[in-house]
Design goal:
CATH superfamily of the largest domain in chain A: Transcription factor LuxR-like, autoinducer-binding domain
Oligomer: heterodimer
Number of helices of chain A: 13
Number of domains of chain A: 2
Order of helices and strands of chain B: HHHH
Radius of gyration of chain B: 11 Å
CATH class of the largest domain in chain A: Alpha Beta
CATH superfamily of chain B: Winged helix-like DNA-binding domain superfamily/Winged helix DNA-binding domain
Number of domains of chain B: 1
Low-confidence stretches of chain A: none
Structural class of chain B: mainly alpha
Strand order of the largest sheet of chain A: 2-1-5-4-3
Number of strands of chain B: 0
Shape of chain B: globular
CATH topology of chain B: Arc Repressor Mutant, subunit A
Largest interface: A-B, 26 and 22 residues
Mean pLDDT of chain A: 91
Strand content of chain A: 5-15%
Order of helices and strands of chain A: HHEHHEHHEHEEHHHHHH
Distance between the termini of chain A: 38 Å
Shape of chain A: globular
Radius of gyration of chain A: 20 Å
CATH architecture of chain B: Orthogonal Bundle
Helix content of chain A: 55-70%
Amino acid sequence: MSLLQAVQDQFANSRNFSELWDRLHEILQPFGVTSIFFGFGHSRQSVNIRGIMESIWSITSHPEDYCAYYANKYYIDDDLSSLHCLTATTPFMWHDFSAWGAPTLRQKRFMHESWDFNMGVGVTIPLRFDNNTGIGGLGMAASHMTPEEFDAMWETHGDSIVAIVDCFKERAFNDCNFIFQLSPRELEILSLLSQGLVPSEIAARLGTSPSTVGHQVRNARKKLQASSNEHAIAKAVFFSII
Amino acid sequence: MLRNNTSSSALLTPREFEVINLLAAGFKKQEIAKILGNSSSTVEKQIASACQRSGCRSSCQIIKILMENNQLPL
């Protein structure tokens, strides 16, 4: 059995997204990958006006202190590897400064300061789905490797890693609710909202109280990482879960 | 009522469409007012008028129908 077939089987047997996420880490760890960021969004325009982090759904195992620093001090827009995902589909090496082109001052500072967190070596692989309207990316850090070690590893295993990430993407987006994990009731409520019902009508239809409906809508929003009911509906429709 | 045809967004004025588009992108009404240089109450009125024109009961419903017709997201 080929490595890729084994990976596909492992991914296919994951019962939920957390398990799939764990398996991805186990599979990439022998290549020197220490932590991963996975994010995707449904609207390019939203990314352009609202900023990437406010528009995408994301999960990460990057170190907490690095994420806090990143969230407090920088917009993801200062991170060229993320911007790269919007326009390109080729892997982006974090430590290959020639790939950074002509960075802005903030981008330069981000590039230097990420080394303080041992987050200077790694690669971001852009992802496309849903006829290319959906955009995402998967970034992986190799905190214990030098750029030279990483490049040598990539020379040998880069193609396999790209194929592994593609398998992960296929499994994850096969049914998007696999990622979001909305309950049947939360899906039902979103569907009723999208049919124009207001929460009090939904409560009456489902034989429950408006405050319960409100609670379930907030939960659904949280799982979808949506900032409003409208945003939640847009995501749910785009990712075909309602 | 908006139906499955290609011109459903044409039922909305360009401004109304823009407001709905920004709602779908996750902006709150106050933020939309700021982006478009309007007051919050103007945005409320535009949403209400978009509902009336399209025969929909809420902005959520308009978003769903526009998306199903591939007119959103941009």
